[in-house]
Amino acid sequence: MSGTCNHPSRIRSESTTMKSRTILNAIACLAWAILFPVSISAQTETLDRILSRIDRVGANLKSMEARIIQKKWTDILEEYDTGEKGRFTFLRVDGKVHLRKDIDEPTVNHLVISDGTVTFYQPKIKQAQEYKLGKHGDKAEFLLLGFGSNKDALREAYRIDLVGEENINGRNTFHIELKPKSDQVSAFFTSIHLWIDAEMWVPIQQQLVEPTHDHLLIRFEEIKLNPKMKKSHFNLKIPKEVKVIRN
């Protein structure tokens, strides 16, 4: 009789081999998952979850201080300026926010927003400008975006997109883009980019893009959340010989 007949022992052997391979493949997949896990954030972190985490941190954020490094991009020249370095602080008390930015390099200057008044002091030229904040606010207030921000308020004021995950100076961040819905805000900035630290859930970098495509790139380092701070820190002492221009 012609043809080939598979012996039962051979069939059992092949079946055992297939089972062994299946088990080995399962073990290999498990080992790979343990050794090289897929980013949890990529699986579970949606924009809404990120905003909720920012919201939760922000609800308990009363004060903050950080080292600030900022530089201005001029689009027509296609270059950044030399940049500035200094300290940035804010305090929230009795429903009011007080902000202070002290630039140390290359030229010392101080900006304070407190009790509805903006004060900008330049010691080198012995001059200070002082004006009421008004309903349109001040550009410096945008530095607070992401620090204590309410997600519902953010969604009401901006169209928000999750750009992706990025590493900034060795820290994992979520890059989100905010586009103002208001024409008044758009007159300041057409888009605002925030890089949210994946552990602290506050921005460690911001990019404020103007209608001209110029932008201000700001990096926050040595961030301290809820340090002890007094309201008197936001009282800017200006010498008597300094000329104060009030608008």
CATH architectural name of the largest domain? Clam
Secondary structure class reads: alpha+beta
Order of helices and strands: HHHEEEEEEEHEEHEEEE
- Nearest-integer average pLDDT: 83
Query: Low-confidence parts, pLDDT < 50 over ≥5 residues?
Result: 1-5, 11-19, 26-44
C-alpha geometry: globular
Q: Given the structure, what is the number of helices?
A: 5
Distance between the termini: 110 Å
The fold-level CATH name of the largest domain is outer membrane lipoprotein receptor (LolB), chain A
Summed up, what is this model?
This protein has 5 helices and 13 strands. It is of the alpha+beta class and 247 residues long.
Structural commentary:
This protein is α+β, with helices and mostly antiparallel strands and 247 residues long. It folds into two domains: 1-37; 47-246, Lipoprotein localisation LolA/LolB/LppX (outer membrane lipoprotein receptor (LolB), chain A, Clam). It is 23% helix and 41% strand. It has five helices and 13 strands. The chain has helices spanning 8-35, 40-44, 47-59, 151-157, 183-186; strands at 63-74, 79-80, 84-93, 96-105, 109-114, 117-122, 127-132, 158-168, 171-180, 191-197, 203-209, 215-225, 243-246. Strands 1, 2, 3, 4, 5, 6, 7, 8, 9, 10, 11, 12 and 13 form a 13-stranded mixed beta sheet that branches. A hairpin with a 3-residue loop joins strand 4 and strand 5 (109-114). The model is unreliable at 1-5, 11-19 and 26-44 (pLDDT under 50).
